[in-house]
Write a structure and sequence with these properties.
- This protein is mostly helical.
- The protein has two domains: 2-213 and 270-460, Up-down Bundle (Growth Hormone, Chain: A), CATH 1.20.1250.20; 214-269.
- Helices cover 79% and strands 0% of the residues.
- It has 19 helices and no strands.
- Helix 7 (148-177) runs antiparallel to helix 15 (328-342).
Length: 471
């Protein structure tokens, strides 16, 4: 209990500072690192063909773990990392995560062996998992309560924008400088974030901090999420009933069931299950999972269509999908102001429905003949506005009803579920797209599937209630 009290006192002190000092230096400092994490999760999809050339003796299945190792470790560690940020200190955890992400990025860039590259990617994911919930917790602490909806929406928008432009930026870098620069590009921004943290983010309060790490709970969470994630990832190269998938899923489910039993008895568990006694928090997290699947399928469907149907070059395809992502930041800023007055539910429902409408448009309007302005751009604008409304709002709605001492772990659970949704989305995209024989019919199936998932997300968001109480 003393750890909770000291953490709450620390945050209260930060909130007092935020009333008199501008919170924006903190925001821009931590968002640079958060931007790197989000962009790194997608940039290698554009670099994968170049990796196959560089490591021609390695099978595609083995090489895919350059992508999968990052996603598996990142998703599995987000929850315990959020707990660590709340216990040890947000600034301290953010610095450690950014430094590890920086060192691992350099190691990835200089790797000349695929096994070393996979290991470096796993360490890169550890750094990413540490800094992500800590960065959001720092943003929440820097802003007064009346402005947090705007701040969280913008924080989420930065991540959404980074994830959306990752393959486009990656295609340009790989085309001009080679795949190693997909990692080296992280170095200047990470160094800048570490330097700015020293002068722009107040240090954590050390006095009275007492915490206990629930080692058993952390291990069970890592094995549980890692097992389920590995099972979904394995769908890309195996049949659904293969022993490998069954074993991974069984280990994951058994570990999570064991964690639930353990957490009910432990006085200070790694993940407080009482988080899910809140109906809004539970609904937001289920919706985040389905939205993550839809977002990923939409995103990679764009590139499959541009390069496979309209035969655009990879850099041109990256440029062609940028109008939608460019709408994310301004829409998110307006959405944050709206959420501060009316809550997140209207934004989540309408944003998800716009994403579904964009999927239906793309399923029935674009054809074999490239007609970008008339047939493609309207769907892009619908999905861009929908993502700008919904995706940042998930982060805000997830923590809106939580106490200040649970910001880190609460946001980590939400981010982890979105990552797991992304893994499912990639696996479904590979199955539906039909491997290398991607055609218009496959694209139609892909877009209608993610449109249905987006519509389901809108339904799941109906119980969300974060409307501010009247003074």
């Amino acid at each position: 209990m003393s750890g909770t009290k000291s953490t709450s006192a620390s945050l209260a002190g930060a909130e007092a500072v935020s009333e008199s000092a501008s919170p924006w230096p903190v925001f821009f400092t931590v968002c640079v690192a958060a931007f790197l994490v989000s962009i790194d999760a997608t940039v290698l999809y554009a670099a994968f063909p170049a990796l196959r050339k560089s490591f021609s003796s390695v099978s595609s299945a083995d090489l895919s773990w350059v992508l999968n190792a990052y996603t598996v470790v990142y998703a599995a560690l987000l929850v315990p990392a959020g707990r660590l940020a709340d216990s040890l200190g947000r600034r301290r955890t953010f610095v450690a995560g950014t430094a590890m992400f920086l060192a691992a990025s350099i190691a990835c860039g200089i790797s000349d062996n695929v096994n070393l590259l996979i290991v470096a990617r796993a360490f890169q994911a550890v750094g990413a998992a540490l800094l992500t919930p800590a960065s959001l917790a720092l943003v929440l602490a820097a802003f007064p309560a009346s402005r947090r909806s705007v701040a969280v929406s913008m924080w989420g928008a930065v991540g959404a924008l980074a994830a959306a432009i990752g393959p486009g930026l990656g295609s340009v870098l790989v085309d001009t400088l080679g795949w190693r620069w997909a990692f080296f590009m992280n170095v200047p921004a990470a160094l800048w974030a570490l330097y700015r943290t020293r002068t722009r983010i107040p240090p954590d309060h050390k006095a009275g901090i007492h915490f206990r790490i629930d080692v058993v709970g952390v291990v069970l969470l890592i094995v549980g999420m890692g097992g389920l994630t590995a099972a979904v990832v394995a769908i890309e190269g195996h049949t659904i009933f293969s022993p490998r998938i069954g074993l991974s899923a069984a280990i994951g489910i058994a570990s999570l069931v064991a964690f639930v039993a353990w957490a009910k008895r432990h006085p200070d568990p790694a993940l407080d299950l009482s988080l899910f006694s809140n109906g809004t928090y539970t609904a937001v997290n289920f919706a985040t999972l389905t939205f993550g699947v839809a977002f990923t399928m939409m995103f990679f469907g764009f590139f499959f269509f541009m390069t496979g149907i309209w035969k655009y070059s990879l850099p041109l395809a990256g440029l062609a999908i940028t109008p939608g992502p460019l709408l994310v930041i301004p829409v998110a800023m307006l959405s944050g102001r709206f959420a501060a007055r009316a809550g997140h539910r209207p934004l989540l429902v309408l944003g998800s429905l716009l994403l579904a409408a964009g999927g239906v448009w793309q399923a029935y309007v674009p054809g074999l003949e490239p007609r970008y302005l008339l047939h493609w751009l309207p769907g892009q604008l619908m999905t861009g506005v929908g993502i700008g409304m919904a995706l940042p709002s998930f982060s805000g709605a997830a923590v809106a009803s939580l106490g200040s001492n649970r910001f880190g772990v609460g946001s980590a659970v939400n981010q982890a579920l979105r990552q797991f949704g992304s893994v499912i989305g990639v696996a479904l995209t590979v199955v539906i797209a039909g491997g290398t024989n991607f055609d218009l019919a496959a694209f139609h199936s892909l877009t209608l599937t993610y449109a249905a998932l987006a519509a389901l997300t809108a339904v799941l968001c109906l119980p969300v209630n974060t409307r501010p109480k009247a003074p």
